[in-house]
Amino acid sequence: MRDRWAVILAGGDGTRLQSMTRAITGDNRPKQFVPVIGGATLLDQTRRRVALSVRPGHTFIVVTQQHRPFYNSLAHEISPGLLLQQPGNKGTAPAILYALLRIAMRSPKAIVALFPSDHYFTDDEEFMSHIDTAFDAARTQPQTVTLLGITPTTPEKEYGWIEPQRSVLGSAARSITRVRRFWEKPSATLAASLMERGCLWNSFVMVGCVEALLRMTRTALPELYEDFAALAPRFETAALAQLYSRIEDTNFSHEVLARRPEDLAVMRVGDVGWSDLGEPSRVLATLAHMGIQSQLARSAS
User: Fold this and answer.
1) 3-class secondary-structure state, position 112
2) Position 301 confidence tier, pLDDT thresholds 50, 70, 90
3) Distances (CA, A) of 273 to 153, 179, 210, 290
4) Where are the beta strands (DSSP E) in the chain?
5) C-alpha count within 13 angstroms, C-beta hemisphere, residue 63
6) Cα–Cα distance for residue pair 6/78, rounded to 1 Å
7) Mean pLDDT over residues 36-44, rounded?
């Protein structure tokens, strides 16, 4: 595990779920700092899940300074160098680029796994065994970044979808196939067609060598890359704040992944009970599947 690193993205505002999370906490804290399902916050659940495959001392957590009251206890738990505090939330691309450059300074040959902090799995061990396989794939194919694609159970309209290139082994469990293209929030008809064609839900979990991830980002977003690279290696607080004050919100999935399918492969993940808890309906569906009648469900009815 020496060359393995992880990035947990915990800087989002979580506004779409605030009506539900407020029922638990009484305030407007983002969902990653809320025990939406179970007794631990989504971020703490993610940290425990990631620790199955990556040393905690090799795990960066990207947060946003305005949320400090909600992650203040975390700041006392982990090494200060592992908590990356953004001056503001400018989307996933700046957060990922900032973290990747910090990892590259420490470990230029690192293999990095990136994780959102608002996902739920019924089987953490099974999912992380796929991450172990993706780490191995990055060693044998260092130029390629592997996305984790969830085998769909419904023609979901609100998820992003990954269309793999056709392959004899493409439908096999844990198969790794080149990416053909992405589909974002398709219509019901298109979602049904994508499901029939063997397309996968995009979990936005990915694994790759830090060099490959940075190269892909630099090609897709050269100006943003140069802006961040100019601050390395020190990333002084004032300079970082000035950069964040002038850059635009940038979505890594839309502006990097969708533009660079040739750099990507996708691994087929089977039934791990995955849910992206970005919408109230997904939370309620997950609770119903678990047979739980919670305060969240009552507040939404």
Assistant:
1) strand
2) very low
3) 10, 23, 29, 10
4) 4-9, 59-64, 83-86, 111-116, 119-120, 145-150, 160-164, 176-184, 200-209, 264-269, 275-276
5) 25
6) 14
7) 90
Question: Helices (H), strands (E): how many in the chain?
Answer: 12, 11
- CA distances to 30, 96, 290 from 286, in Å: 19, 28, 6
- 3-state SS, one letter per residue, for 22-53: HHHHCCCCCHHHCCCCCCCCHHHHHHHHHCCC
| Structure-token pair, residue 56 | 């905690």
Q: In the structure encoding, which two tokens stand for residue 72, read together?
A: 């203040």
Closest listed residue to residue 201, CA positions, set 272, 133, 256: 272
How far apart (Å, rounded) are the C-alpha atoms in residues 82 and 99? Answer: 9
Q: For residue 21, what pLDDT is reported?
A: 86
Structure tokens at 217: 């980002």
> Which class for 257: exposed (0-12), middle (13-18), buried (19 or more C-beta within 10 A)?
buried
CA–CA gap between residue 186 and residue 195 (Å, rounded) = 11
**pLDDT tens, position by position, 229-274:** 999 988 999 999 999 999 999 999 999 999 999 999 999 999 899 9
H or E stretch at 72: helix 68-77
The answer to whether 113 and 50 are in contact (CB under 8 A) is yes
Q: How many Cβ atoms from other residues are within 10 Å of residue 248's Cβ?
A: 9
Distance CA 85, CA 271 (A): 34
Count Cβ atoms below 10 Å from residue 226 Cβ, excluding itself. Answer: 10
Per-residue CA distances from 93 to 26, 57, 160, 216 (Å): 31, 23, 17, 12
